[in-house]
Specification:
3 domains, globular, alpha+beta, 15 helices, 6-stranded mixed beta sheet
Length: 416
């Protein structure tokens, strides 16, 4: 081991001396890479081979951009942060692929560069401190998602970890932790919902809403229907992402062609920057596509409830006679989907009439535009109230409305 900077713990050590964190063990508390808790189809420490290949390409063309972090414990170097980089370098060494050397600006065999690597060494960290480091570093890398963090909390609770210790490790707020602990307690009543929550097939908000349905059969029917809705959404998102990837590939090829033309004039700096931009975008979009999986949200739940309510048979046999009786139809249930559809239909109808209401009253055109955008903001973009206000404040002013317009109007309808 060669010390480079004692203050920061930078050392040069043999790559072969670095050991990945141990496998997850639900019966023994100890440090493992939290990314493996993510349920997506990933083979290497929570990453797919495609993601490993993407990083290998980057290392071959640009070199290793960030050091690994290891824990020096009992004279062993246990990997804390950098499992994807470790696997990529391991494969490059096995292939002895040509890699970019940032010191010589040349491409040389991987064994000439990475037989020894510079790492940041931490001394004698306990499991909790290692988890803190892993979650902290995740903020600037590929996220391992909500379900992995929830599964980690469930793991900690099983060992009766105190709140302050869990917060210290995963970096979440006390309010988030308590809400998550309450949800985990709630889903104990339904193993299917709990498994889906921990596997990432339903988000926390939807799981909480689903568990509010007390009837087990009804809950199961809604869950299964909502999952089908989520799968349909997933397929649609993948199609859109594939189009985005295709378009980015076209831009990258165009930039590479422009570079070839620019080489004739000796001016390739701008072309290189454009190629790097599109290559980075392509990598990000491929990563996003890999992360697209069926996941039930509240919209899927609302649609499932609407579908099931619509399938209820209108006929029901009487309890005291053999004559069939007409089952009283349920009053229409207000759901987020029905509210959205009603507003959208009414706005579109008003606009088609020339901004006239059903009562033949004229509406200021900008209000219909604002309402239409508000529906989109709430149900599709899901932006915050503050962002929506920022968007429309300037539009109202540009339309000639005073910044203080309506200041004397009470929200209950009375004029001040």
């Amino acid at each position: 081991m060669q010390m480079i900077d004692a203050g920061t713990g930078l050392c040069r050590i043999p790559f072969s001396s670095i050991k990945p964190a141990k496998e997850f063990d639900e019966f023994e508390f100890g440090f493992f890479n939290p990314r493996i808790l993510d349920s997506k189809n990933r083979e290497y420490y929570g990453f797919s081979q495609e993601e490993i290949n993407s990083l290998k390409d980057s290392i071959k063309s640009k070199g290793l951009m960030e050091n690994l972090h290891v824990n020096n414990i009992n004279s062993e170097h246990i990997l804390i942060d950098g499992h994807r980089r470790h696997e990529a370098i391991k494969q490059l060494l096995e292939e002895n692929a040509l890699c970019y050397d940032r010191h010589t600006n040349q491409h040389v065999p991987a064994k000439d560069i990475y037989s020894e690597v510079i790492v940041t060494i931490h001394q004698q960290l306990n499991a909790s401190q290692c988890f803190s480091r892993a979650f902290e570093s995740d903020c600037n890398k590929i996220s391992f998602g909500e379900n992995a963090t929830i599964r980690f909390v469930d793991y900690c609770i099983s060992f009766n970890m105190p709140e302050n210790k869990i917060i210290e490790m995963c970096g979440k707020s006390i309010s988030w932790l308590r809400a998550t602990a309450k949800l985990l307690q709630k889903v104990k009543a339904d193993s299917d919902v709990k498994e889906a929550l921990l596997d990432g097939r339903i988000n926390a908000s939807a799981a909480n809403s689903l568990m509010d349905i007390e009837n087990e059969e009804e809950r199961q029917a809604i869950f299964e229907t909502a999952l089908k809705k989520a799968e349909e959404d997933c397929a649609e998102k993948i199609k859109k992402q594939d189009v985005a990837i295709y378009n980015t590939k076209r831009k990258l090829k165009k930039a590479e062609k422009q570079k070839e033309e620019a080489e004739d004039y000796g001016d390739i700096e701008d072309a290189d920057a454009l190629i790097e931009k599109h290559a980075s975008t392509l990598e990000e979009r491929k990563r996003e596509r890999n992360d697209i999986t069926p996941r039930i949200n509240n919209k899927n739940l609302e649609e499932a409830i609407d579908d099931i309510d619509g399938d209820v048979d209108d006929l029901d046999m009487g309890h005291h006679t053999d004559e069939p009786t007409i089952k009283k139809k349920k009053e229409p249930k207000l759901t987020m989907k029905s509210i959205r559809d009603t507003w959208t239909k009414d706005i579109e109808t008003s606009i088609s009439r020339g901004h006239i209401t059903d009562e033949h009253e004229t509406i200021i055109p900008i209000l219909n535009k604002c309402f239409a955008d508000m529906v989109k903001a709430m149900f599709e973009e899901k932006i915050s109230y503050q962002d929506f206000i920022y968007r429309w404040s300037n539009r109202f002013i540009e339309a000639g409305l005073s910044a203080n317009a309506g200041e004397d109007v009470d929200i209950n309808g009375e004029i001040g």
